[in-house]
Amino acid sequence: MKKIVLAYSGGLDTSVAIKWLKETYGAEIIAFCADLGQGEDLDAVREKALKTGASKVYVEDLREEFVSEYIFPMLRVNAVYEGSYLLGTSIARPLIAKRQVEIAEKEGADAVAHGATGKGNDQVRFELTYYALKPDIKVVAPWREWPFKSRQSLIEYSESHGIPVTATKEKPYSTDRNLLHISYEGGILEDPWAEPPEDMYTMMTPPEKAPDKPTYIEISYKEGNPVALSGTPMTPARLLEALNSIAGSNGIGRVDIVENRYVGMKSRGVYETPGGTILHTAHRAVESITLDRETLHLRDSLIPRYAELVYYGYWFAPEREAIQGMVDGIQKDVTGEVRLKLYKGNCFVAGRRSENSLYHPELATFEEEEIYDQKDAEGFIKLNALRLRVRRLLRNPHA
């Protein structure tokens, strides 16, 4: 291999990877860093890559594409993995890998590489995307090849080679941040009984230190997508960024879970997803008054499957695209406004309205009305109870 495009973050793993790949393969290393809203000095990341041995560095702002073409489609499905994880890291990988393949084709590179470990999910997510978009691509996964057995050995290697890193022996956990969330894994978090240190968190105020007065906001939706915050139209990335600030200051979005990785093991992950938590709640609220019962239940039955596909790395698989197409088709009526009350880690729905609302006050009321004849319920109940009555009679004829 003469030229390799590396997905580069500037962190411990990929910083070591530049030097190791160059030494091992004697190849030209092109680093690619996607700006997905990680809040870092990307000029410094560029300089670090060049100093570490990269011959060329791509740093590209993909924030709007990330939110509009990846996060929002996922939120339209209300995807949640194993009941808690809003898939912040999972959803970022297909976009990074897609652009990486495009750069490899542009540069005439022989291969692509990533810094994901051989025990994690990210290696699967990156490589499934590589192969889906360029079947003949060569993939180099340093963690599956190099002699280093732990992040501690990477820290020692980087120190001996003058590679600056943010991970330390005191804080050896791994982080990954983008506009949707920040994740913390490994190191001191590997004991599922141990509470994470308070100084670890980045995007959120601890709920106990959040304001003593609630914050009210309104989110406007059009065909399943949020388009305005408290009456102000915003681009997808700007809206999510604003919600991260508001939700974070109110202590909303912290999750600490033990999840099942695709490769077969359990792992403990701590996540902050402030804006995403609000959007998940708000979207549900608009759907509650605009979607028919059976349509909503059908979509909800697909959530676990869709979430698995995103978590496992099958963003560009036909089954994910098929589910997406169905869900997007039923989102055309999901238009309206939601009023939310944010208070000390909680996100309450305070109101919802829509011009497409299926909520009928005269039908829902307990007062007298002329549309619904309550006597009709007797036949409805008996018909639905028929199979239960027959089952009982067949088992006990004297019942």
Notes on the structure:
The protein has twelve helices and 14 strands. With 399 residues, it is α/β, with parallel strands linked by helices. The chain folds into three domains: 3-63 and 86-171, Rossmann fold; 182-353, Argininosuccinate synthetase, chain A, domain 2; 367-395, no CATH class. A five-stranded parallel β-sheet has the order 3-2-1-4-5, with helices on both faces. Strands 10-9-8-13-14 form a five-stranded antiparallel β-sheet, with helices on one face. Strands 6-7-12-11 form a four-stranded antiparallel β-sheet, with no helix packed on it. α3 (63-77) crosses α7.
Highest-level CATH class of the largest domain: Alpha Beta
Per DSSP E runs of 2 or more residues, the count of β-strands stands at 14
**Could you please say which CATH topology of the largest domain applies here?**
Argininosuccinate synthetase, chain A, domain 2
SSE order: EHEHEHHEHEHEEEEEHEEHHHEEHH
Tell me the fraction of residues in β-strands, as a range. Answer: 15-25%
Outline = elongated
Category from helices, strands and their pairing: alpha/beta
Number of helices: 12
The CATH H-level homologous superfamily of the largest domain = Argininosuccinate synthetase, chain A, domain 2
Q: How would a textbook summarize the main sheet?
A: 5 strands, parallel
